[in-house]
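Hey Z.,

So I finally got round to the nicotinamide-adenine-dinucleotide thing we talked about over coffee. Here's the setup:
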Amino acid sequence: MTNSRLPGLHNLTRTQRLALVARETGLAPAQVARLNEAAQIDGDLADMLSENVIGVMGVPLGVATNLIVDGEDVLVPMASEESSVVAAVCNGARACRAAGGVTTEADPPRMIAQLQLIGVEDMAATKALLQGRAEEIAAICNACDPMLVELGGGFRALELREAGEFLVVHLIVDVRDAMGANAVNTMAEALAPDLERWSGARVGLRILSNLADRRLVRARALWPASEIGADMVEGILAAYAFAAADPYRAATHNKGIMNGIDAVALATGNDFRAIEAGAHAYAATRGAPYAPLSRWRRDSAGDLLGEIELPMPVGIVGGATKAHPTAQAALAIMGATSAGRLARVMAAVGLVQNFSAMRALAGEGIQRGHMGLHARNVAIAAGATGAEIERIAQQMVARGEVREDVARALLGDKQDVST
Ligand code: NAD
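And the result:
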């Protein structure tokens, strides 16, 4: 039985850690060799980015074509293990190209840090007192990050809210080209002792809010009925109406949007958990109990208009974006030289992804296209290698049976024939 108590694991080298884990878990030598091999190039980098690293998990990096964002063509690197995600952006972007592609706008890059004041006796008096100290608060925050201030960012506003029994202090900070979590967390922690001294209350948590609703990004695009068909416009509007009416459907509608956005986030070294948290929390503020992040309607000419709005806390500096060479290459492919441009392209990708998912669902269903790509994974899982993978995948798709048992049977047939 595995003993999960491995004191000092973090002090070992990566290969020593892997050997220890292999011993504890009875990992096969071939699996150990595979992990070592896969970490040949990026293992040391991974070791710096995270803890107790024993390997590197490779995720396919694809590039979505055909997208125009604000009049400029852009190739979008996307890291995703899920079949059809990249293809969906390519197809959806092609279908709105003739109509000009996607147009976007983004709020200034403002993040929110929260401080929880516990034991405030007089809310109104404490609020007035803290508002009176707004300039001192700004100075304390800005002193934490002279570089950010130099770049035109820094403290922007103080907001005071009541949440249950707590007085919650919001620091609104312009983080320029950073995602900004570390930047604003540092400010919140630096401010805490002064807040306690001034208010006589105790400061509890000091951390950013992932509901980054001061940093919204919006994208819109038109898909001509002449391009996709009037029936498809109708079908997509019915699919959207379903999502608007039912949170069970809205969750999947938004998951489709995030398929694209997360893939760009991962490719560029951004924190996709933060983006996910913000997106879903924002969806919950848009309609009870939970709303689609996009809106769809038909314009007077009968064409399909899609719009999306969501928080987009992404950066091109800080975190892994700067430290990871693949993330740097991904940003270079996109030509994203500001966090704002990256955020706008990501919103466009989310909208186009949403269009393609609804087009598939409203038309032939998602399985045909999806299964064509998924069939390769199934073939690999069944033991196919090299050229067999594509052949077995195609045979399964032709039969309309994409299953591991079918792949095994097909592989068995081949073995019978060849022996
Ligand atoms: P960071 O602290 O690594 O980099 C930001 C700093 O870079 C700024 O404070 C500034 O001093 C400097 N900088 C240099 N050039 C800049 C420019 N052009 N624009 C803005 N700043 C510039 O990173 P961060 O963006 O503050 O934090 C992101 C990291 O925080 C991510 O890795 C994320 O995973 C992590 N994180 C997230 C959460 C959360 O989401 N709840 C919590 C904690 C940490």
